[in-house]
Fold each of these.
Amino acid sequence: MQSWPVPAVPAIDVDTPEAPSALTVHDTATGGLVTAGPAEGTATMYVCGITPYDATHLGHANTYLSFDLVNRVWRDLGLQVNYTQNITDVDDPLLERAARDGLDWRDLAASQVDLFREDMTALQVLPPDAYVGATETIDLVAGVIEKLQATGYVYQLDDPQYPDWYFDVSMDPTFMDVSGLSDDAALARFVEFGGDPDRAGKRNPMDCLVWMQARPGEPSWPSPLGTGRPGWHIECTAIALDTLGATFDVQAGGADLVFPHHEMCAAQGHALTGAPFARTYLHSGLVALDGEKMSKSKGNLELVSRLRRGGADPAAIRLAMLGHHWRENWEWTPDQLTAATERLAAWRAAASLAATLDVTALVTEVRRAMRTDLDAPAAIAAIDAWVGASLSIEGDDAEGAAVFTRLTDSLLGIKL
Ligand code: 5CA
Ligand code: ZN
């Protein structure tokens, strides 16, 4: 596991009895707002991490920023947070890219993970408590598959060349509870994400691969299932259960992961423990560029690192992304960075005032917005109004600027 120390987040230190006393968020499985996290103690969250074959684009950054808001709202509510993120550091796209570019797949992964961590640090995204690579958990995953084999949930294909192992989706009654998709829609997405519905010998078309026997020239590890490597979904299932236990609070990722990834994780997790996998499933909106979802495979990317190299203040990049509600699909345009840079300058001017307008009402409004489905655009609007007024009217709150600085740092991750 990689060490990634979590920096201190300042307490806002203001009582706001009128703000909601818990976080409610939009849950994919129920399709409505639910309370996420316990009333006290430790909240637990698993966010699906990167496949490190190319640099962090604004779509990835926006997804980790969205769930950073969950982390920050929980902390502001006085909860401890136990947060896990994986690294899919062995998978087809990574191996294909390394082969294409004549690189060792391990070196490619390590360099992209370093760049991701730099970008996240610059953007003030709080790191996970456990940051776990798939290649570090081969034995753990093989053990989980053996457990599923013992209870009949996984089976070995009768294929003389590649007798791979599959999870039988028809065995788990909770399969499809996360996405609620129709069979046709689910099948189309299954294929889009590399599924193999027509492979001979499968019990059900949508059964997913859990252990792939070694292919020539590809990395593999010895295990009781044969020498090979784990499938994608079972990795996240195993790492989440190992680090957070059964029925943790939140599983999260971009909206592209609802099906099949999170559906499979949930069914496998339920099959393993008999309990719900996560209580709540959160999916952030997808970021587009030039009219299409930003994606490494299509190459229509704007990179956090490129914007930073071009002189953008990372706080302004973050503020530009926060201008979109976390569930919105949106398209990146450079003028958003210009507007965010101006907004940041105004906020910084207010943060250096000797006296401001009363800040307590603003703290209440920002907490209310963030605790109600992570409504960062509403929080920003409230701040803009307060900043505008404080800059034009003489206020008498001598503590206002200091509290305001702690408020934006703590809840929005914007350091003034
Ligand atoms: N390693 C898997 C998850 S286990 C994976 O999906 N990796 S990824 O590198 O492709 O994506 C990392 C995260 O960024 C995922 O949560 C994914 O949903 C999200 N993501 C990818 N593209 C976009 C996009 N254009 N907009 C928003 N989020 C995106
Ligand atoms: Zn995942």
Amino acid sequence: MSALAEIIRERIAASGSISVADYMELALAHPEHGYYRKQDPLGARGDFITAPEISQIFGELIGIWLAQVWMQMGGGPFSLVELGPGRGTLMGDLLRATKKIPEFHECMTIHMVETSPTLAHAQYQRLRYEHPRIEWLDRVEELPDSPTLLVANEFFDALPIKQFIMTDDGVRERRVAWDEAAQAFTFVEGPAGLQLAKSGQSIPPGTVMEQCPAARSIMRLLADRLQQCGGAALVIDYGYLGDAHHDTLQALCRHQFHPVLRDPGEADLTAHVDFSTLMGIARDAGLQVGPLLNQGQFLVRMGAEMRAEMLLKHAQGPQRDLIVTGLQRLVSPQAMGELFKVMAVASRHDIELPGFAL
Ligand code: SAH
């Protein structure tokens, strides 16, 4: 048994079952053995690959989006924030694509919000010569009070979720226990929990429901900050609109699905993002909220195909294949194009969110 599995097992032995959120938090962020703490999980040799690692076009178009919004805001000093920047690839592509926009780089201070020291170091290595003002923060709470342009790709899916399950006698929390006979972690039903938001709703027994308290509190904080200081945000992730009535917890290990409770700390654990809740929080804070777009739609509207054609003019041999297959993976409905969604919010209602107008 791994050191982290042993720690979790002991905790359960001492004080009983733990919530799915606590399990996820320990598996991903335990200070010594957590998944994001000890290794670089991204890329071909890692456990999963993300859009910025697939094609430079992704980060470039996000850079164009942010710069267009900044110009509509009238320019001026701002904080460019990325949540969970991975290897710093998106930020590097974004900076390169916006270099020629007058004053954009001069006006920005970059804030990278990253909990993993390993990844923060990789970001530093990648970006230290790209911009004179880059600061690293552990937590969203530490962001400065300044006009903000923010991007978060595959960040919200890494935040710990709670799960609940409908039973014949009401909703109970789904928790994680240790099965001594099987020598494995297992799901158990906890005491009655969760008050259902909509009373009178008939949810079939066996339905799993999810809640992400961390996503809610981060979104609330960001929405208030944007409302007070001005700015806009782009959130990209796999997720859905509508009720959070599905079990979306999943583990990936070396590009393969993995049993979610096996090998904590060795596999990546994520849950799909409940965009309805995040958009509702932004709306309640008074922000402009664009319609939720598919990643494919968004990138094509931002000019992904034209950008690929430009890159092809200067590419040869295998490079050409990479450009073409990279674009396809990002936009095609069979790959990431439909599963991944893009949410945009802005403090001002008169700003046109590029790519979001009908
Ligand atoms: N955005 C990158 C990486 C996605 S992986 C890309 O698209 O390639 C998730 C990232 O979020 C990692 O950098 C991870 O270390 C970071 N992360 C996870 N939980 C976090 C938290 N609570 N606070 C800050 N960063 C977090």
